[in-house]
Design goal:
Blueprint: H1 2-15, H2 18-42
Length: 50
C-alpha cells in the first residue's frame, strides 16, 4: 500500500512543475546577483601602485 501511495505522489508531483521552474529561475538570478555584487565590491580593492 505504501509503495502505491508513493507512486501516486510522484505522479502528482510530476504534473505540477510550474513552481519548480520558478524556484530554479529565482536560484539562478540569486547566484548571478551575488556574483555581480561580489565583483562590484571587490574591484574597488585593486591596488594602483603607479
Amino acid at each position: 500500500m505504501a509503495h502505491n501511495s508513493r507512486a501516486v505522489w510522484l505522479a502528482q508531483a510530476a504534473q505540477h512543475q510550474g513552481s519548480g521552474n520558478l524556484l530554479r529561475i529565482i536560484l539562478i538570478v540569486m547566484v548571478v546577483g551575488c556574483a555581480l555584487t561580489g565583483w562590484f565590491l571587490l574591484r574597488g580593492y585593486k591596488r594602483n601602485d603607479d
